[in-house]
């Protein structure tokens, strides 16, 4: 089947299509049998308070403690009181279906999104280095764009610093290629689309060419896209998400 025909203008996304691929991606995470991976990797579908547009937030500890008690404590702080990746007990299977929307859950999502000029504060007391990745739809390129910020790094390592990004996020095999790419097609910096605070992102100008060779459904769009974009900054989707039923 030619899935490209299901899009208004493949591989670009309009806002409605982006909302749908975000929902499918979140559903994959919820239904996947991740096991211990849930202890260090968390995905949440969120909404911008001012526009109600969807985006994906991914949290990952950079240096998980070896001690189980310390790990549980750190993840509890990071996840806002729940273990990183723990399912919300109130979130039933019906609530993650595309044709069933819970207004209370939507309102809670809206309330939990940081307002403009407000920094995310997931781990004020965790004292564990972590990275926040976010996937937003780029208004100009009409492609998903991967934003990322470092938090709680050891003293002396600035969080908004390209050297810190290369030290903590970029795998060795990607470093020379990213540096050669420069700003266009590589790591760029700009005001964050929600907080307006400076943040890093992967420039989306070359994403179209990379995606054009694929033919994937909306259920798989972000899985394919992250496979192309995420690895260069240390973000890999757990393989169990590809195996989960959707």
UniProtKB/TrEMBL annotation:
GO molecular function terms noted in the UniProt entry: Atg12 conjugating enzyme activity
Top-level division of the source organism's lineage: Eukaryota
Record GO cellular component, one term: cytosol
Record's signal peptide: none
Membrane-spanning residues: 221-238
This protein's UniProt keywords: Autophagy, Membrane, Protein transport, Transferase, Transmembrane, Transmembrane helix, Transport, Ubl conjugation pathway
BP GO annotations: autophagosome assembly; autophagy of mitochondrion; protein modification by small protein conjugation; protein transport
Family: Belongs to the ATG10 family.
PANTHER family on file: UBIQUITIN-LIKE-CONJUGATING ENZYME ATG10 (PTHR14957)
Protein name as catalogued: Ubiquitin-like-conjugating enzyme ATG10
